[in-house]
Specification:
The chain is of the alpha+beta class. The protein is built from nine helices and 15 strands. The strands form two sheets. Strands 5, 6, 7, 8, 9, 10, 11, 12, 13, 14 and 15 form an eleven-stranded antiparallel sheet that branches. The protein has a four-stranded parallel sheet with strand order 2-1-3-4. α7 packs across α8. The longest helix has 17 residues, at about 225-245. The two termini are about 25 Å apart. The model is unreliable at about 145-165 (pLDDT under 50).
Length: about 300
């Protein structure tokens, strides 16, 4: 079998680049042909994945959650086997399916050759998302934090950027249709989750990438909040991150289903797996078993 290995040299603190010869040596023990490409941008990663899905038997890649999104978008509807070496700042996808963070451990998973069909999300029939579609409080920090800061400070860079840019939560209209429920309110944060981990935290511990269901959480807010109502939302957002999307709070609404239509204002920006997405309304459908990924054999998914 022939494999293509793509890697983002800027992911995390750039440590993977120093181990490329090690990676090649071990991959050549399993694959007849190993082509390795250092990508230059998200668009370049996506383009190489799209081309590779037509010419290779397997696509392997290394980077963060955004890199995973780039590859997923590139392969589109193709069911080519994927292998992942996480090298990002939070690596939520790897956490959710039990792929080790170390290069050695992740390579062992790939070389063992056990794959599983995982669910993913398709948004507006144009975008693919692996584990999180989010809008509102703090969500923009994943794509607005400078790469230089992430290399130097890791997760701390996200925290600093979040405090600089999100001290006053924006309030926006939210109308959700999910699992037979319809909810209409204003909010400061919306999560649509497929998986267990978000921002390095197990916010959806009962979730799974193999159950055919997505989870939705909305942190609600009045349309024109006073200072105390604004302050209260910091505690509600913190509760979702610390105790999960199913937390029992009156201002946190939880829904579950295989699709969700969210109607909101045109200036609301979505975050897809840590990458900047479109604005406004989103129609999100779960694609069951769409992603064929090498995973640890005995890990409960």
């Amino acid at each position: 079998m022939n494999c293509l290995f793509l890697y983002n040299p800027n992911s995390g603190k750039g440590k993977l680049k120093k181990k490329i010869s090690y990676v090649r040596r071990h991959l050549e023990e399993k694959f007849e042909r190993v082509d390795i490409v250092e990508t230059k941008s998200a668009e370049d990663m996506e383009a190489h994945a799209r081309d590779g899905a037509e010419r290779y038997d397997v696509i392997l890649f290394s980077g963060g959650d955004g890199t995973f999104n780039n590859v997923l978008t590139g392969i589109g509807d193709r069911k080519i086997p994927l292998g992942y070496i996480p090298s990002g700042t939070t690596n939520d996808i790897a956490h959710s399916v039990g792929i080790p963070r170390s290069v050695k451990g992740a390579l062992k998973v790939i070389l063992a050759g056990h794959s599983a069909p995982l669910d993913c999300l398709r948004v507006n029939d144009t975008h693919y998302v692996m584990y999180i579609a989010a809008a509102g409080a703090f969500t923009e920090v994943t794509y607005n934090t400078p790469q230089k800061s992430k290399k130097l400070f890791g997760r701390i860079a996200y925290a600093v950027q979040g405090l600089k840019k999100n001290m006053k939560f924006k309030v926006f209209p939210v109308r959700c249709h999910c699992g037979g429920q319809v909810s209409e309110s204003h909010g400061v944060l919306v999560f649509v989750v497929n998986g267990k981990w978000v921002a390095g935290m197990p916010v959806n511990k009962k979730g799974s990438m193999t159950d055919g269901r997505l989870e939705v959480a909305v942190v609600k807010q009045v349309k024109r909040p006073n200072v105390f109502q604004r302050l209260g939302k910091y505690f509600s957002v913190a509760a979702v991150m610390l105790f999960g999307v199913r937390v029992k709070k009156r201002d946190v609404e939880f829904m579950r289903g295989d699709s969700v239509l969210i109607e909101t204002s045109d200036d609301v920006v979505w975050d897809f797996d840590g990458e900047e997405g479109p604005r406004g309304n989103v129609d999100i459908r779960l694609l069951r078993g769409h992603v064929n990924l090498f995973v640890p054999k005995n890990k409960k998914l």
